[in-house]
Amino acid sequence: MPLIGGAAVTFAAPALTLRRCRPIRCTVTNAATSKEAALLRRAAEVADLSAGNSSPHPNFGCVIARAGDVIGEGFLYAQGTKCAELQAVEKAGGLARGATAYLNMEPGDCYSDRTAVSSLVQAGISRVVIGLRHPLQHLRGKAIQSLRSESVQVDVLGEDLQSKEFEDALKSCLMVNAPLLYRAAFHVPFSILKYAMTLDGKIATMSGHASWISSKVSRGRVFELRGRSDAIIVGGNTVRRDDPQLTARHGGGHVPVRIVMSQTLNLPDEAKLWNVTEAYTIVVTQRGACRDLQKKLAKKGVEVVEFDILNPRDVMEYCYDRGYLSVLWECGGILSAPAISSGVIHKVYAFVAPKIIGGVNAPSPVGDLGMVQMSQALNLTDVSYEQVGPDMLISGFLQPIPDLSPVIPSSDEISALDPTVSPFDTKIISFYKTWDPYGAFSNYSPHPIQMADENGNYLTWSTMEHYYQAHKFVGVDNPLAKDAFEQTKMAKSPEEASRLGRKLQRQHPEVVRADWDSAKIDIMYRALKCKFSTYPHLKAMLCSTAGSVLVEASPHDLFWGGGREGEGLNYLGMLLMQLRTEFLEESSKTSVVS
Questions:
Q1: How confident is residue 470, by pLDDT bands cut at 50, 70 and 90?
Q2: What pLDDT, in 10s, does the model give residues 167-224?
Q3: Which pTM does this prediction carry?
Q4: 190 burial class (0-12, 13-18, 19+ CB within 10 angstroms)?
Q5: Which residues form a coiled coil (predicted)?
Q6: Is 85 one of the annotated active-site residues of the chain?
Q7: DSSP collapsed to 3 states, 75-94
Q8: β strands within 367-461, DSSP E
Q9: Among the options 36, 73, 85, 106, which is catalytic?
């Protein structure tokens, strides 16, 4: 399919079958409706509090109220941290019994331990109001069913509750998890095109000079957008002309990956993006392009990924495979046009500055889309206008937020409809993100472990990733190593522990234990064995995969993961299979003895 053509641009919508599984009912008065809608909107606001502090993840917020008064709130800070529901009931304490919990989205039972559901049930919550069902098929409806099986009343917007006020609340719930919804529906990350232009539609002068079109206040908003993104994409022209750094510049928290798209790899040998000390950089290019520069970039720590034919759609599918939820495009018109044409841009943020620079050949934010009539123009929906300093921010959706309210059939339903279709044919089980079906196998899963230190004293670690990263610095007689150990151990999330451990390893290799390369496999295995021995349900899950190959599906960690095309060593998957064999042999011996 050509990236830019003469025909009007069209977008493929996800194929969904509309059906409802429960009758509509509304059990609240008009006054109560407004209050409950406000509490649901508050749950969506709370869910968004982690933005910029951790990498994009499904946003969960929980608000517990009695007679309309909030008594407890919580939100998921990062994957692998305490769930929103548990935080809220802990804050509510004894007042939670008989209260109502408001959730922007159905909880995800990612770890096979039902923490979100059990915390609400054990606290005595009598009713749960949910904004939307979980969009991922393997999690959809499970928490709702579990709560109802515990005699908890569950009301879902659009199914059990309907009114104008609830429609507005539902919109808030959809917006806060728009990246997850787009990813689930289209199998690409949620993509935002951002640009700043003058009042006459120019993004630079005829000479290419563009610093600065927008105000400092607007540029601050751009840093916020970056902090909400897994990756930032620019083209080769942007690197050559502007030499950007593309950091979030918020003094900590999540740092997105920088991605440069260049077909010919006609890029400078030196650029700010080639410094990967603070942020990772990926260059995507056409297969075989400029091998000399590829080697130079690899030596600097820049990852180069080749495509047979470089185009935005394939790059976004690659980002999807890497687990990205949200991508920010900060490119010029030459790249933004094919990105729009290929249907991977979902939302636009346009900062319009009250300036005029003119110039027939001055670049505009979007190149040729092949349109010859105004009837072919792409109309934005849900358009917003906001004054940002002296500038005007206009934002809207090129593709509306996917409506995933229809029930997606479960594996059991599929088998009932067509007995010849089996979802269990495959012998390969992949895991990567904690919200995957086997997310409990991830180092990031929130299962604390207790491990003995070199003196025989037992320490509690929030996750396996905390333990693994901190042990890079054990036994090194250096104050910086001891400080690195403590910083990593006390990190707020496994994501932050990983980021700290890797950063300190790069910046201060002298504080990393000399035997790390030979010791890290044993350290990982000890942590795995402790985790799966401590939690019986995890051990049972692991043993249930007997006969299947386990693959850690990280596309970029070629040691612990399987890589993008199976080129990785998959050591984590192999260690899990080794541990599974041990457990099964122990079980077999026990059965023989008994």
A1: very high
A2: 889 999 999 999 999 998 889 999 999 999 999 999 988 888 888 899 999 999 999 9
A3: 0.78
A4: buried
A5: none
A6: yes
A7: ECCCCCCCCHHHHHHHHHHH
A8: 381-388, 391-397, 428-431, 449-452, 458-461
A9: 85
